[in-house]
Amino acid sequence: MMADVHAAHRPEETPPRIRWHRPLLWLAAVMAALAVFALVARFVDEREVLGANLWDKPLKFAISTVIYAVTWSWLIGQLERSRRVAWASGTVIAAALVVELAIIVSVAAAGTTSHFNVSTPLATAMWSVMAVSISVLWVATFVACILLFRTSLGDRARTIAIRGGALISLVGLGLGYLMTSPTAAQLADFGGIAGAHAVGVADGGPGLPVLGWSTVAGDLRIPHFIGMHALQAIPLALIAIELLSRRTPVLRDVAVRARLVGTVAVGYLAFVGLVTLQALRGQSVVAPDAVTLGLGGAIAVVMAAAALVVVAPGRTRAT
Predict the structure, then answer these.
(1) What is the pLDDT of residue 314?
(2) C-alpha angle 38/44/45, rounded to 5°?
(3) 16, 161, 182, 262: which could form a disulfide with 186 (CB 3.0–4.6 Å)?
(4) pLDDT digits (tens, 9 = 90+) for 226-241
């Protein structure tokens, strides 16, 4: 009887509190406010840089940074081992992004370009600081990625999704360095710009609205962007698989989900490679040729076949 009384008054267990990385959350809040400001400013301030509204770049970077910072804030909060190192890595990521965004916004407000600009001593110094901050960001992210392999992240499927997304994101960050080398045209007739987004034409030509990705030539921002956001895309794919498992019995097996999300990760990495090749060939993302379409189709067929191989044995057992 006494045991029943004690059990009745025993406090209910509550789920563990998420330990968000606070500096990254603060950064995300500031970037959200910046995104709102830039969105309004682009309709008020009609000045352009390289054919695009000068507030488009701050807007894009602010939105991307919100997503990136919130994701890493949550991931770092999951780490159980080497928490001090993880916390320091997150703080360095936040600081590096603050430096980069501060320069992008200040240069945009001045009505000029920030990336690759070495036309004056001040512009060169600011671009050099940005380059250093980007390298620091990559190293800090690399450390955080390593720590993801030293802690439990849930079941096998969730672990593969998080670790795979983080590694591909690191590759996407690294692809940004492809844009920093001067082009042949710049070397032949130097005009104060060393580096370019576009391949085959000068920056500033026709591009997709807001994104600015070239519609007439290759654009290295595309693989950089797609690769970076594997950090969100692959875990989102797993969430979709988990939701489908409510209606599809075969997906309730964690081993099946793990193999499926592994297939998604490999396919995503192949897609990053495809858009990188397309950009380096000087081909616009909106005008793929037969080679690009063929490679894309091959990736899709191989992924579909691999998914069927993963699911088929489980479906047979369920039947």
Answers:
(1) 54
(2) 80
(3) 182
(4) 999 999 999 999 999 8
